[in-house]
Structures are given as C-alpha cells and as structure tokens.
Design goal:
With about 350 residues, the chain is mainly β. Helix content is about 5%, strand content about 50%. Strands 1, 2, 3, 4, 7, 8, 10, 11, 12, 13 and 17 form an eleven-stranded mixed beta sheet that branches. A hairpin with a 5-residue loop joins strand 21 and strand 22.
C-alpha cells in the first residue's frame, strides 16, 4: 500500500510538471518560433531553422558557426559536421512576402557544388505553394543541368525548367518576379542590385504561365537553405559555404541605389518602359542631358535582334513615344538603348 502511495505521488508530480511546461512548435515552415534564433539581414528579420526535418531530411543547425553575418553585413551559410553528424542551414523571413520581385545576390560556386549539396532560394507555404530557384546535381556527379526554376508541385509537367550553369566568377544574381498570372525567373552573371545588365550577362530565364502559381493570400515566406540530398554526407568538402551579399524583396526596391553600368555617361538621366508587362503596345521614355545620336532595339533571349525601333537617331534631350508589339510573340525580351560610348538594357515582358 505504501509503495502504491509513493508511485501515485510521483505520477502526480510528473503530470503536473508535464502540463506546466511551455508547448514548443516544431513546424518546418511557418514556425512562429518564440524559441528560434533570429537574425537581421538585408533589412529583413529572419528565423534560423534548427532540429531534424525535411528537406532531406537533414539535421539543421542554428549556431553562429553555421549562420552568421560578417563585418560587412554579408550573410554566411555553412554546412558543417558537428559531433559526427552533418548539419544543413536554413533561414526564413518573419514577415510574409507578396507579389513582386525576389532578388538574391550570391557569392559561391553554384556551378561546382558537391553532388549532394543543394542551394535553395524560394518562397514557401507548403509543398504545393512554393516558388524555387535551386542549384544541385541531386546526387549525380555527372548531372549537367544543376540550375532549376520550379513552381511546385514539380511533378506536374511543365512546372520546372533545368539549365546548365557556368559562372565566370563566384558572383551571381538570382531572381524571380512573382505575379498573379505569371512567374518570371532570371539568372545572371555578377551582382546587380539596381538595373539589370545587358543580355550577354544572362545565364538563363524562364517565363511560367501555368496553373500552379501561388496566390499572395496563401501566406508565403521567403527562404534560403543550404542542405544535403537525402541527408547524405558531401563527397567534396571544398564548397560548403555560401555567402549572400543582399536580398531584395517586394517593397524594398525604393531603398536600392540603381547601379551605373560600365560606360554609362553622366548625361544619361532616365530610361523607362511602361506598361511592363506589355500587350499590344508600350511607351518608351528616356532623357539625356546633352543631345547625341542613339539607337533603340529589341533583342530576344538568344541575343537576336527582333525589332529596330530606330538607329542612330538624333535625340535632343527627351524621347517619349508609343510603339506597337503586334508582331512579337509572347515572351521575354531586352529593350536596348545605345549611345556613342554606352548602352543600357531593360527587360520587357510581352504578353498577348
């Protein structure tokens, strides 16, 4: 009888202690994460993932040795071996994202990652409401198209596009423009926080019009992860760190200083195309401080001239005119304005 009383008292204590503990959420996605580590990077608050979850599944590290900001404010993500186990890393925004451009300025040899390593740049609610840019060989060292643009679920035909990647240096710009009726993906050589460069810096683009585009009411967040396929250990341990110089999310564009492309003269003031996306016609507007002859041409993604609006036309200071696009098929183009010693290109999305 005495033993039963002691057992009952112990059981009562354990029960009270169990229900008095805070309940911890271990969601892999929308973790409200009162206990998660939080960092601020590129003007955004991010949670750092920890635990054992997918993708992979992987062990996820939130330690400062795995995820940290350097003295210049750059974000470092590192896959590390800790106590005999490999740990991946992921951050995700505290604030929900919305329609608009999501741009990532990356430093790292994404074309030379270990066969088991994946870099993901994406918005996510769940596996059917997700937009991805990923770089990986997916466990196959001979895989020749490590870049991919995807609107989930990837199992639906036409929801993913893979491409070859060969970087000129470790710097690249990855972006997607998420809109209610399309997603436009782009990958560029070099870093571009303002105006995008000329077509010769383009690695790959893809315009998705399918039915799987998430709605902004689905409450997606922005994620960056660096992980291992099926949790497998890397074979080549040389490229297990990625540096993110900047992330530009919808609503942040006004805080970015437009970059000045090489050779752009001081007399260049403005270059605009609207509406963009355009359908039947577009308005082109640009301004120069001093008169000079300029050319205005449209190129496709392969660099082929598909329309010459004018060639070596003398412009005093300002040009504005409406141009029809009836002869152009739907797609992505570059509208290039060129002077004597400079040129500037704007991306044009044409939709019938």
């Amino acid at each position: 009888m005495q033993k039963f009383k002691v057992f009952s008292i112990i059981l009562l204590i354990l029960t009270v202690n169990l229900f008095s503990q805070p309940q911890i959420s271990f969601e892999t996605n929308q973790n409200q994460a009162t206990l998660a580590r939080k960092i601020q990077f590129s003007g955004v608050d991010w949670f750092v993932k920890s635990g054992y979850y997918g993708p992979g599944p992987n062990y996820w590290s939130d330690t400062p040795e795995s995820v940290w900001l350097d003295n210049e404010g750059k974000l470092h993500l590192k896959i590390r071996k800790i106590d005999g186990k490999w740990y991946a890393v992921e951050i995700y925004s505290e604030q929900l994202t919305t329609y608009g451009e999501h741009r990532f300025l990356i430093e790292g040899a994404v074309d030379q990652l270990d066969k088991n390593v994946v870099l993901g740049l994406f918005t996510y609610k769940d596996d059917t409401h997700e937009i991805d840019i990923e770089f990986s060989k997916w466990g196959d060292s001979n895989y020749q198209q490590p870049g991919s643009f995807t609107v989930q679920p990837y199992t639906i035909s036409g929801n993913s596009r893979s491409f070859a990647v060969k970087l000129k240096n470790p710097l690249s710009t990855q972006l997607f423009n998420w809109q209610p009726n399309f997603v436009h993906f782009s990958s560029y050589q070099g870093h571009h926080s303002g105006l995008l460069p000329s077509p010769d810096q383009l690695i790959q683009q893809w315009l998705y019009f399918g039915s799987s585009i998430p709605k902004d009411v689905h409450q997606l967040r922005t994620h960056i992860n660096f992980w291992l396929v099926d949790g497998n250990a890397p074979v080549d341990e040389r490229n297990l760190e990625i540096v993110i110089h900047q992330v530009i999310l919808p609503g942040q564009e006004d805080n970015v200083e437009p970059e000045s492309p090489s050779g752009l003269p001081e007399n260049f003031n403005l270059f605009q195309i609207y509406p963009n996306p355009a359908s039947a016609s577009m308005t082109i507007n640009f301004q120069l401080k001093t008169p000079e002859p300029v050319s205005l041409e449209i190129f496709d993604l392969c660099g082929k001239n598909v329309m010459t609006i004018f060639k070596n036309q003398w412009v005093e200071k300002q040009y504005q005119a409406v141009h029809t696009l009836h002869d152009l098929p739907s797609g992505v183009y570059f509208c290039q304005l060129k002077g004597k010693s400079w040129r500037q290109a704007l991306k044009l999305l044409h939709i019938h």
